[in-house]
Amino acid sequence: MPRGRPHGAVNMTTRMVQDFCRRVVGDPQYQKNFLERARKGTLGQMESVCWAYAFGKPKEHLDVHVTGDNEYDAMTPKQLEERVRELLDRVKEARAARQAIELVEAKGDFTVQ
Hints:
The protein is mainly α. Helices cover 62% and strands 0% of the residues.
């Protein structure tokens, strides 16, 4: 016979903290002060913790849905590797050009904009 609380049940301490935090964030005076601090930009870190205990922590994931076609969908792995090499070569060329510009500017010959 299993002992303790059922799977998924909230323990007493968690429930007490949750109830306390809900009373705090539901208090009209707190809400007035909260709004004033928010306007001043002086909300503390514990504020978000209290709200999370009161109503649950917001989800921290991002759903990404890609729609439409792009040039890479139809490429074979070999074609993708070749494309990556091409892009890396372009990055190297851009870095080399930037370094050359910085070198010329450091010598004081002229400024590139």
